[in-house]
Amino acid sequence: MDIWEELYTAARKVQNDRAVSPFIDAGGVAAALRTKAGNIYTGVCIDTAASLGMCAERNAIACMITHGESRIEKILAVMRDGKIGPPCCVCREFMMQLDRDSGEIEILLDYETRETVRLKKLVPQWWGYGRFEP
User: Fold this and answer.
1) 86 three-class SS
2) What is the three-class DSSP state of 81?
3) Sign of the torsion formed by the C-alpha atoms of 72, 95, 40 and 62
4) pLDDT tens-digit readout, 39-94
5) What is the radius of gyration, based on Cα positions, of the chain?
6) How many domains does the chain contain in total?
7) Tell me, what CATH number does 9's domain have?
8) Which of 10, 23, 34, 126 is 20 to 30 Å from 99 by CA-CA measure?
9) In three state form, how does the secondary structure of 19-30 look?
């Protein structure tokens, strides 16, 4: 099993589209990431009637941060239909702010072909590099 299959399987295990309440749906999209330390964290999207939810990627990142880590090596998101989807702009920005080297995070774009992209390609000319200490 390659790392992308491992991450895909981990995301699918937590992906369970469900109503949490009349106002909140969760689990339509799931994400999994692997940290530089080799740990895997997962998360699901949480959609609310008042737009207070969060994407699956940020949920997985929050889980990672909760466990004391902040450096992502690879990440993927699985849509309702089982296909891979790229992170939204909010998730891209969130990841960029994690670490000086976050631009090197590898993002899966297509599960079948294993096409990937580095985060820095999705966030060209990022505004925040100068705020990291040299």
Assistant:
1) coil
2) coil
3) positive
4) 999 999 999 999 899 999 999 999 999 999 999 999 999 999 999 999 999 999 99
5) 15
6) 1
7) 3.40.140.10
8) 10
9) ECCCCEEEEEEE
* Dihedrals phi, psi of 18, to nearest 5 degrees: -155, 160
Collapsing DSSP to helix, strand or coil, 111 comes out as coil
Give the pLDDT mean for 108-112.
Answer: 98
Quote the pTM value. Answer: 0.95
**Stated length of the chain:** 134
The residue type found at 89 is C
3-state SS track over 4-69: HHHHHHHHHHHCCCEECCCCEEEEEEEEEEEECCCCEEEEEEEEECCCCCECHHHHHHHHHHHCCC
What CA–CA distance (Å, rounded) separates 26 from 60?
A: 13
**Kind of pairing between the strands at 72-78 and 115-118:** unpaired
Q: Which residues contact 134 (CB under 8 A, 6 or more apart)?
A: none
